[in-house]
């Protein structure tokens, strides 16, 4: 099986070519780095060619290049030497730290440092002259210096990559937060749109169906009056909502959120639309004021319950009751359950989903479904909206 070497990087090819060219020029000029070696003449070309070939592997096989390069440099010490060979070896040491494994990047500086110390002490003990320190210095320049430089460059690159990764993660989290915020805002606007307009459109659909099915001028006139009233109110609320969505200046005053003080008008409108509604508000008039989100949620739950009763309830009385407890406000709406005798308006189920979402956003509980009562089967909507006593005290 043939050994396949990785394709060298373009920069490696350029470094190898430039180093080989410089080495050949030094050889042609007769410039050698040392003299008095066993192999003179052109024997220095052999380590030069080997190191130039190993430069092609500096990025793809750094450890192989370092091992073979060390052997080639040792062999170069027995020839007249070439300065280009020494420079290529220093580059191979540097590349082994920068492109090698993390273990190699930790091991090579320690090894070259120990080799530098050992060479310095060994030659100093051998020659017993201060000039022997220069040999250790040259050894450190050739091996330890490029290794420590490689460590600095590698640490810088790893820090830059870590910073880039953190930036990408931050951008991803920001995008996720943005998408979540957009989704939450879309859900909120969908609930507001449904709660504000569905009641009026349901009344229009039911009364228009009654006007078409009954051949009675008075009934048709009354139905048209109800249709006109609901269409005008629905258009006004629709324009207000569209104005909020289109405004980008932020200069408009925020629209006042509905409160429980408006339940009387809401019940009166439901009676106008044909419902027999009874409001049982057990809250004390001088009691603590509820937080605005709780009042808005309670108002919307009653509004949507009356809309569902208008669309789906059978003939009978609809009861709305509110009870304020020390830590919660309970809202209950009951309506006759069965097959309605009059015209019906289509429903999508979004109303129950919206009521449940409003309750859960406040940490409350929501239940809806048919139940048995002394007056027969009824559809019951029950919501418990928590109230923080600290908030109540702040609002008094």
Helix/strand layout:
Elements: H1 10-28, H2 45-55, H3 62-76, H4 83-99, H5 102-127, H6 132-213, H7 217-246, H8 263-272, E1 276-281, H9 292-312, E2 317-324, E3 328-336, H10 350-361, E4 365-373, E5 376-386, H11 389-395
Parallel strand pairs: 1-2
Antiparallel strand pairs: 2-3, 3-5, 4-5
Helix pairs in contact: 1-2, 1-4, 2-3, 2-4, 3-4, 4-5, 4-6, 5-6, 6-7, 6-9, 8-9, 9-10
What labels would you give this structure?
single chain; 396 residues; five-stranded mixed sheet; disordered C terminus; alpha+beta; rod-shaped
Structural notes for this entry:
With 396 residues, the protein is an alpha+beta fold. The protein is built from 11 helices and 5 strands. The chain has helices at residues 10-28, 45-55, 62-76, 83-99, 102-127, 132-213, 217-246, 263-272, 292-312, 350-361, 389-395, and strands spanning 276-281, 317-324, 328-336, 365-373, 376-386. A 5-stranded mixed sheet has the order 1-2-3-5-4. β4 (365-373) and β5 (376-386) form a beta hairpin. The chain is rod-shaped.
Briefly say what this structure is.
The chain has helices at 10-28, 45-55, 62-76, 83-99, 102-127, 132-213, 217-246, 263-272, 292-312, 350-361, 389-395, and strands at residues 276-281, 317-324, 328-336, 365-373, 376-386. The chain has 396 residues and is α+β, with helices and mostly antiparallel strands.
Mean pLDDT, to the nearest integer, reads 81
Please state how the strands of the largest beta sheet are arranged side by side: 1-2-3-5-4
Strand content: 5-15%
The major beta sheet can be summarized as: 5 strands, mixed
